[in-house]
Write a structure and sequence with these properties.
Helix content is about 30%, strand content about 20%. It is α+β, with helices and mostly antiparallel strands. The longest helix is centred in the middle third of the chain and has 30 residues. Strand 15 and strand 16 form a beta hairpin. The termini are far apart. It is elongated, with a radius of gyration of 24 Å. The protein has two domains: about 140 residues, Creatine Amidinohydrolase, Chain A, domain 1 (3-Layer(aba) Sandwich), CATH 3.40.350.10; about 250 residues, Creatine Amidinohydrolase.
Length: about 400
């Protein structure tokens, strides 16, 4: 934990201190910042206060008094709730504004994890609680050089797996053998295992109307056969089987036909145009040395699809942060589901994945990942898809 860097952030935002708190793993963001291993018992309330200036202070229960011993600062132990309240009052004496994992009006739900009762308690000391969101991702979401390279390895596995999936579909159709969505999903999972990768949940393979459901997942009992003439969406994500490895996440489109229909091609073109517009905005802002917020990218992407007449059919945010979990703790590209005004900062990665979903017909989603290097270089980490894969052997 870099206390000096945290204090720089607090001073920049004119916040008197950061009060980190956890009980029973209820604040995974704080656990990440405090670098507490997942096997440590956190069955009692603990607090770690980092002032904008001066030394940190630890408040821990007597039976778990060792939990924060790896962190700098004075340790204070309590047993009763009255002792805890007294220690909090002492620690926060003279503090006007304190940051916690809280988001006013729950604007960013993934940050707003502190319960209302605790906020009431902190406010009872005459302290204003503000959100840690503006600077939190700098301590939870940055990648190391090794993690970047692990991401690139995972990206290569995804490309190899999806290419194999298209070949699987082509070969079955050419030989007039049955093939369904579930078989494609299981093929991808087998490839992940062979490549030393793991995933969360299962990959998506959706045909025609199923592709119009953004979170449709085939199962052994519920799936659709893939036939000649079908549109096919494949969404897959994985990481190397290491605790500190980070994910890669892509979505690809194909048709089991000579070519897509005019309507399919029109929808694809708008989705790709929107994806490119969002990417270009990020590149432009960084080339100008200006901040870009996740919500701003979502607005630009959404505008392209709205202008194409398909705005009502783009039913999710543009993208999500990517870290050791696929949906990471950093800024999302979102102005519609949540009001995410967090900046997209160097050494973070996120997906750009607009989609158009026509119920009962088909859906098109295109997804790649974008990494912002330390020097501000913006990299799309896997090749953009410029046209449908033709998953048919002629």
């Amino acid at each position: 934990m870099n206390i000096q860097e945290i204090q720089k952030q607090l001073q920049f935002y004119k916040i008197d201190g950061w009060l980190l708190y956890d009980l029973h793993g209820s604040n995974p963001l704080a656990l990440s910042v405090m670098q507490i291993p997942p096997d440590v018992l956190m069955t009692r309330r603990c607090f770690y206060f980092i002032p904008a200036k001066g030394n940190p202070q630890k408040i821990v229960h007597k039976i778990e008094s060792h939990n924060l011993d790896h962190l700098p600062g004075e340790k204070k132990s309590y047993f009763s709730w009255k002792e805890l309240h007294h220690l909090l009052g002492e620690t926060l004496h003279g503090v006007n504004r304190v940051a916690m994992e809280y988001s006013p009006n729950q604007a960013i739900p993934t940050v707003s994890v502190i319960d209302g009762g605790l906020i009431d308690l902190i406010r009872s000391y005459g302290v204003k609680v503000v959100s840690s969101a503006p600077f939190l991702q700098a301590f939870t979401s940055l990648w190391s050089d090794e993690q970047y390279h692990l991401h690139k390895e995972a990206s290569a596995v995804l490309e190899k797996a999806v290419s194999g999936a298209w070949d699987l579909i082509k070969n079955h159709l050419a030989q007039e053998r049955p093939i369904n969505e579930y078989q494609v999903q299981q093929f991808i999972l087998e490839r992940f295992e062979k490549e030393g990768c793991v995933t969360e949940g299962e990959p998506i393979c959706g045909v025609n109307g199923n592709a119009a459901d953004p979170h449709y997942i085939p199962t052994k009992e519920k799936n659709r056969p893939i036939k000649k003439g079908d549109l096919i969406l494949i969404d897959l994500w994985c990481k190397k089987d290491l605790s500190h490895a980070v994910f890669a996440d892509i979505t690809r489109m194909g048709v089991a036909a000579d070519k897509p229909t005019p309507k399919q091609q029109e929808v694809f073109s708008f989705v790709r145009k929107a994806q490119k517009a969002g990417t270009d905005l990020i590149i432009k802002r960084y080339s100008e040395g200006r901040e870009i917020q996740g919500g701003e990218v979502d607005e630009v992407v959404r505008r392209v699809i709205n202008e194409g007449g398909y705005g009502d059919y783009f039913t999710h945010r543009t993208g999500h942060n990517i870290h050791t979990v696929n949906h990471g703790p950093g800024a999302n590209l979102d102005s519609i589901e949540t009001d995410d005004h967090r900046p997209l900062i160097p050494r973070t990665c996120f997906s750009i994945e607009p989609g158009i979903y026509l119920p009962g017909e088909f859906g098109v989603r295109l997804e790649y990942d974008v990494y912002i290097h330390k020097d501000g270089k913006v990299e799309v980490t896997s090749p953009p898809q410029e046209g449908f894969v033709i998953a048919k052997t002629l």
